[in-house]
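Researcher: I'd like a structural prediction for the single chain below. Treat it as a standalone chain; there are no partners to consider.
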Amino acid sequence: MPRIVRGGLIQATLSVSSELPIEVIKKSMIEKNVAMIDDAAKKGVQMLCMQELFYGPYFCAEQKPKWYSLVEKIPDGPTITLMQELAKKYSMVIVVPIYEVEITGVYYNTAAVIDADGKYLGKYRKHHIPQVAPGFWEKFYFKPGNLGFPVFKTAYADVGVYICYDRHFPEGARILGLNGAEVVFNPSATVAGLSEYLWKLEQPAHAVANGYFVGAINRVGTEAPWNIGEFYGQSYFCTPRGKIIAEAPRDKDFLVVADLNLDEIQEVRDIWQFYRDRRPEEYGAISAVER
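Model: Treating it as a single chain, here is the predicted structure.
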């Protein structure tokens, strides 16, 4: 029997004004995503990921300390606790991207991974932190990740996470494959005019180069008062052959659902022996040369 897992991706617009109190914004976005998780359960989704910093706006469009109040502990904060309850209720693996506090003043852009029985498995912290004009002032908010590139053995598949800007760096994508990832989720927040021409190039290329599935998630709409551009949605799943098999529209809330045949990983790797033929002893310059 083929080893098939049903995956889901949630892309969502900001549900209320970003100028409302932060606790109001957070409550509204959590409620929206919970409703979409309920819908995913009805559609038989077994593994699900939401967009980057899912419970708020993309606040990195400005540099204001008020957004530090969005941070939570992982796994002991209220959002992860809620998602553990939902994961157990629906026997669903859930990848939860939130703003994490380690200690006061030390904050990370993080995704927690929760297994289908509600158990917290661990977290990935975004490694590559952009400072790109206009409106991507992430170094003001996040310390670079320091937990490596873990792969989580869930009930349905071995799952890796890469977050947004990470996708421009093939090194971590390769390490996730070497660590055994079968599905890599990339929750993102990115706008047209800046990155859209790369959106369907880089991640299918990672999938092909490493022989795994990729679930790419992007938020939707424009977010006032910053209006740094249109978050163009188009969340998708692609196969180890780089083929996009399910895709969301660019302009509305959407749940992407796709059946991932994990046996395809073996089929592809039996043909393209990239792991066999790589030459790590010759790649020292990647880390030795700092420019």
